[in-house]
Design a protein that fits this description.
The structure is a single chain. The protein is mainly alpha-helical. Helix content is 54%, strand content 10%. The protein is built from seven helices and three strands. A three-stranded antiparallel beta sheet has the order 2-1-3. The longest helix is centred in the N-terminal third of the chain and has 29 residues, at 15-43.
């Protein structure tokens, strides 16, 4: 008596890369756009405050993120542009743009954390308020906004890392306008009338044989 063992058909692994590509694409877009928006918003908020000693007493001073450093906002804008440019290039170009996106995120984090302890912006304001170039700010304190900007940079960095890892699975912009593998329509040559000499000369100019079948 013979026993027939059913061999299970292997499951197709093709959908897995496509699914990973779609998920990573959605996550990268969300992280990149949200991170750039958060970083830009944070740089417009108050990062530090203090006082300057003037003749009439203590003069309150405040500094926005853009007063402290312009690097996070600039890198956030470049990162947002790189996120869009990822879909306009392929292969090595996509890898280079993805690396730029990741570097923009890392730079935003570093600049924001460095700005959290920077006092130069308030020192300059204190010197102008006191009329003394050697004057410095007193009772200095910082807000949480520099760390919010750093969090935005971390999201941009994550988007760049996703682009480096899964970018090869993402579609390109030109893919919307042409089908992969579809042959381009061939141009048909106009019919040649052997009884008309001008048609024969035009066919010869095009490199065709007017006598061919």
């Amino acid at each position: 008596m013979e026993y027939v063992t059913a061999v299970p058909h292997p499951r197709s692994e093709a959908p897995r890369p496509a699914r990973a590509g779609r998920r990573s694409l959605a996550l990268a877009l969300l992280c990149g756009a949200l991170g750039a928006a958060v970083a830009l918003l944070a740089t417009r908020q108050q990062w530090a405050e203090g006082t300057a000693t003037v003749a009439g007493g203590d003069f309150p001073l405040t500094a926005k993120g853009s007063d402290v450093t312009g690097v996070p906002a600039a890198l956030a804008i470049v990162g947002l542009a790189a996120l869009v440019a990822v879909f306009a290039v392929r292969r090595a170009g996509r890898f280079a743009v993805a690396a730029l996106l990741a570097l923009c995120g890392a730079g935003t984090v570093a600049a924001a954390l460095a700005g959290a302890y920077d006092t130069s912006a308030l020192d300059e304001k204190a010197a102008r308020a006191a009329g003394d170039t050697s004057a410095t700010v007193d009772a200095l304190s910082h807000t949480a906004w520099p760390y919010v900007a750093a969090a935005g940079g971390a999201l941009i960095l994550l988007a760049g890392l996703l682009a480096l890892r899964y970018g090869r699975l993402w579609p390109a912009m030109s893919g919307r306008y042409e089908r992969a593998g579809s042959p381009r329509p061939r141009r048909t040559a106009p019919a040649v009338d052997p009884d008309r000499p001008e048609d024969l000369w035009k066919a010869l100019d095009r490199g065709e044989d007017p006598t061919g079948a």
